[in-house]
Amino acid sequence: MVDDNELRKLRDAAVPAPGESAKARAFEAALRAYDEENISAVTQGSVGGLRLTERAQKLWSEIMQKKLIATPALAGLVALPIAGYATFHMLREQPSPFGDQEKITETLADKPATLKPATVEPKQAPTALEKDKNADADVESRDATQVLVAPQAPPKSESTIAGGSVQQDALGRGMAAEPAPPAPRGELALDGTTNAPNAARVDRMQSAESKLMVQPQPAATPADQIAPQEENRDRVQDFKTNPVHAALEDPVSTFSIDVDTASYSFVRGSLKQGYLPQADTVRVEEMINYFPYDWKGPDQASTPFNSTVSIMPTPWNNHTKLMHVAIKGFDIKPTEQPKANLVFLIDVSGSMDEPDKLPLLKSAFRLLVSKLKADDTISIVTYAGDAGTVLEPTKASEKDKILNAIDNLTPGGSTAGEAGIKEAYRLAQKSFVKDGVNRVMLATDGDFNVGQSDDDDLKRLIESERKTGVFLSVFGFGRGNLNDQMMQTIAQNGNGTAAYIDTLAEAEKVLVEDASSTLFTIAKDVKIQVEFNPDKVSEYRLIGYETRALNREDFNNDRVDAGDIGSGHSVTAIYEITPKGSGGEQIDPLRYGQATVNNGGIANADEYAFVKIRYKLPNEDVSKLITTPVTSANEVASFDQASIDQRFSVAVAAFGQKLRDEDATAKFGYDKIMEIATAARGADPFGYRSEFLSLVRLASALGGNR
User: Fold this and answer.
1) Which domain holds residue 478?
2) Residue 228 pLDDT > 50, yes or no?
3) Which of 691, 374, 379, 306 is nearest to 526 (CA)?
C-alpha cells in the first residue's frame, strides 16, 4: 500500500524540463504519423484510412514504444499537439453543412435575384450531332473563318454581367437553354482547379500545413438536377402563319418585299446550340432570301430590277402547285458605285461586354472599313448612359485613324439609344453626299432603355429622318437581350436592312460579300400585288411575309412605306396555289355559285394570275409599275425540270415551314427536304448551301424526322 505522504511529495515535486533530444523525437514521430496518413503511393482509386480513434492510438503507441514520455508532465506536453491533430481531422471528415454548393453560393451571393430555376433536359445522342460536325468540306472551310468566340452559353441578362467572370463560370455549368423552347444548350465547365501548395517552404512543418489547407474540389452539378438560369429577354414579334384564301372571295394578295436575313442567322444559332428555334423567330421569307440566286437581272440601270415567274408542282402536296416569283436587282459595278457617307452607331452599353457582342462587332466593322473607297466618309457615334461622338466625319483613306477609333471602344453603362440616333443623324447631315449613299448603321444587342424606347416612337423618329435622304440599317449581335422586333421596325421604316451577325463569317457575308446590296439602294418602297384568276385557281396562300402584309389599297398609295432593293439583291416570293378541279381544296365552295363579270364570263381566263410590282427610284417620290401575266407558258411539267436555284429555294421554304410546324409540311420529312436541297446545291463557292444541309441534319436529329 502506497503511503499518502509519498504521493503528496510526488505531487508537489518540481517537474524536470524535457530534454532537447526527447522533444525532437516526439516532433519527428508526429510528422511521420502525418505523412503515413496523407502521403500515399497509390496513384489511382481511393484507399480507406484509419478511423480517427485508431490514428490517435497508433500515434500514442509509437511515442510510448520509443519511451519519449518519461514523466506525466511530459505526457501532458505531448498530448496537446495530438489533440489539435485529432481535432483537425475531425473537422475535415465532417460533411460541409452547405454541401457541394458552398463555392457556387459564394460566387452568386451578390446577385441572386437575376436567376431563375430551369430544368435541364437530357442531351441528344452525340452520334446524331457528329454528322453535322463532319459535314461537307466547304462548310468546314467556311467555319474556319468564323470568329473565335467562346462556346455559346445561355444568354445573360444585363444585370448579371457586372458580377464578373467568376459568376459567369459558376453559371455556365449545367445551364439550361432559353425558356422558349426549353432544350439543352452548350455548357461551360466550372473551373475546378486549386492552388498547389507553396513550393518555397521554410521547413517540413510549413509543407505539412500547406497540404492540409488544400480543400477538396466541389463535385460537378448532376445533369438531372435543377440549375440556375439567367433571364432571357429576347423580344421577337409573334405572328400567325398566312391562311389559305379562296380566290373567288379574296383574289388579291398584297405585301412589301423583304430583303432582311436576320431570321436565318438566328435559326442557325439556335440549331448549332442544340435546340429547335422558337416558331416566331422563323420568318420563312428571310430564310429563302438569305441565299444568293442567279435570277435573270435587268440589262440596264434605268430598269432597277427584273421579275421571273414560274409555275411548278409542289413537292409536299400532289394536289397543289407553286407559283415562284423571283426578282433580281441591277448590279452596280464597283467603278460606278456612288460615294458613301456612313455613320456607325454603336451600342457600348454594359450588356455588350461579351465575346459575341462588342468584340465581334469591332471585327465586323473593321471588315467593312477595308471594303470602302478612299473618298467615302465614316463617322462613329457610341451610346451607353449618354451618346458621344467618337469620330467626326473622316475619309476612308485615313484608315488607321478609323480603325484605332474602333479598337478603343469599351463597354459600360445603360442604353441611351434615342440620343445616339439623333447624334448619328446629325453627323450624317453634316457630311451629306448629294446623289450618294447616306446611311446610319446601327449595331446593338438589345433595347433602347433610356429615353425614347417605345417602338412606335422610334418608328416616327426614323420616318421623319428618312425623308431627308438618310437611311438606316440595323445589325444585331448576341443573344439573351436581342430586341428583334425593334430591329425589324426601325430597319423597315428607315429604308434599310436588318441582319443578325453571330460569327465573323456572317459579318463577312453581310458587310463584304453583300456590301453592294447592303449599302447601295437601287429601288425603294417595293410592293407586290398578285391577283389570282378564280377560273384557274381555287385557293392560294403566300409562304412567309406575314409581318410584311399590306392592305389592298396600300399598293397604289405612294405614302405607304415598303421594303427596298439593293444593288444585285435577290428577292423570292412563293405562293402555293390549288388549281381549280384538282381535288385539293380546303375551303368549301359557295352555296350560290360564282360571281360573273359584265361580259358574261371571266376575263383573261387562260391566266393563273396577274403580278404587279410597284417601286420608286431612290431619289423619287412617285412610284412606277411593272406587270407580268402568268399563263401556262410559265409552267414546267415536273419539279425536277425547275432550275437548280428554284428547287433549292423551295427546299428552304419547306424547311422554314417545317421549323414552324405548319400543317402544309406536317407529313413532309426532313429527309425529303435534304434530298431536294442536296440535288439542287449546285455551285456553292462560299459554302452557304452546304451549311444549310448541316442545319437540316441538326433539325432532324433534334426534332426527329417527323
Assistant:
1) 334-519
2) no
3) 306
Q: Rounded distance, CA 594 to CA 596, Å?
A: 7
pLDDT tens profile 691-701: 999 999 999 99
Please, are residues 254 and 551 in contact by the beta-carbon 8 Å criterion?
yes
Q: How far apart are CA 586 and CA 43, in angstroms?
A: 72
Are 507 and 526 in a shared domain?
no
Q: What is the share, in percent, of the chain residues with pLDDT greater than 90?
A: 48
**Domain CATH code at residue 469:** 3.40.50.410
Sign of the four-CA dihedral 537, 541, 543, 544: positive
510, 540: one domain: no
344 and 387 both lie in a single domain: yes
E-only strand ranges, 617-699: 624-630
Residues 496-507, mean pLDDT to the nearest whole number = 92
- Amino acid, single-letter form, for residue 385: G
Number of separate domains in the chain? 3
The answer to whether residue 164 is domain-embedded is no
Start-to-end CA distance of the chain, whole Å, equals: 99
Coil, strand, or helix at residue 130?
A: helix
Q: Work out the average pLDDT over 3-22.
A: 70
The string of DSSP letters for 296-309 reads ---SSTTS-EEEEE
CA distances from 238 to 182, 259, 296, 658, 686 (A): 18, 19, 34, 17, 32
